[in-house]
Amino acid sequence: MQEIDYSNLEFGYHPTDYIVRCSWSNGKWGEVEATTEFTFPIHVSAACLHYGQLAFEGMKAYRCADGHVRIFRPDFNGERMRRSCQALAMPELPVDLFVGMVEQVVRLNERHVPPYGTGASLYIRPVMIATTPQIGVHAAHDYLFFILVSPVGAYFKGGFQAHPYVITRDFDRAAPKGTGRYKVAANYAGSLLCHRLAVEQGYSSEMYLDSKEHKYIDEAGAANFFGIKDGVYVTPLSDSVLPSVTNDSLVTIAQDLGIKVERRQIPVEELAEMQEAGACGTGAVIVPINRIDDPAMNRSYVFGEPGPVTRRLYEALTAIQLGEAEDKHGWTRIVI
Ligand SMILES: Cc1ncc(COP(=O)(O)O)c(C=O)c1O
């Protein structure tokens, strides 16, 4: 087998040994199977291919300082997956089944969990698809839930660096009462063109405003936004952002550190009063933002290098995930 240089690994797909899967038909879940078969036949008329009945999750397993492998708040992702399924009229996956299958797939692929200290981790991707062959527009009767894993490299290769973002006023990510708060494929398909245009202009990612009034910050690409204003952690309150496990954890850590937290609408112009800004999500934990351009308004909000509060929060959360700091909220679960 080819040796992998985990310290330089990209965030991409790398083959592993097993996936786990479980089917829903006749109104119930079947047996959980582990398989080395990574492809499966799918009917040309399967509902997921036509009507986008597809919900998914994203989480990571970390090899820790003490040699154990930990996963972070899998119940949060399981509960979010349940809500995503409900929103797409799919069977609600029980959270216990979700967490049990996540643990099983990590154990089966233990040799692919990157070593501690490389910054790399094992990405876990649970997916549910509708498989019933049909043409009519209605919820399917049959579903497949499967989980694949892949080792992925650290987001930051050359240290904790800040990145430029651009506000888009030509695209909305999700409607106010739409699917934005769920992790479903359609949200991502609809954002790919906008993301590509932002990257072509030299930005790391696009920033979405609320789609009703285009006045308030909504999502930072495929991540939640937070800003630090006079020592206060401010993050958008919106029905169309995905409830992020990372943001939720940063809020708790901030409160533990005595930092005040405000969840509320953030008018775009308020960025001028913030000293730090970041995008948070499982992939990078925090991407510090050095600048947010708003070309349509001819404005630029500059934050510069990663600030002290952003750094402190990043270090505190990653230390818990890597088993280096006390996990006083009981967030991590030892799998191996
Ligand atoms: C649209 C969107 N927002 C926010 C997040 C961050 O969520 P989490 O911290 O649960 O990874 C993600 C990533 O999953 C995302 O896709």
Task: Characterise the protein shown here.
- 44% of the residues are buried.
- Strands 1, 2, 3, 4, 5, 6, 7, 8 and 17 form a nine-stranded antiparallel beta sheet that branches.
- The longest helix has 14 residues, at 74-87.
- The protein is globular and about 55 Å long.
- It has 336 residues and is an alpha+beta fold.
- It has two domains: 6-152, Aminotransferase class 4, branched-chain amino acid transferase, N-terminal domain (D-amino Acid Aminotransferase, Chain A, domain 1), CATH 3.30.470; 163-321, D-amino Acid Aminotransferase, subunit A, domain 2 (D-amino Acid Aminotransferase, Chain A, domain 2, Alpha-Beta Barrel).
- The mean pLDDT is 97.
- The protein contains seven helices and 17 strands.
- Helix 2 (74-87) crosses helix 3 (95-108) and helix 6 (245-256) crosses helix 7 (308-321).
- The site of pyridoxal-5'-phosphate has 11 residues, from helix 6.
Based on the model shown, name its key terms:
336 residues, alpha+beta, D-amino Acid Aminotransferase, Chain A, domain 1, D-amino Acid Aminotransferase, Chain A, domain 2, 2 domains, nine-stranded antiparallel beta sheet, 17 strands, 22% helix, 27% strand, globular, binds pyridoxal-5'-phosphate
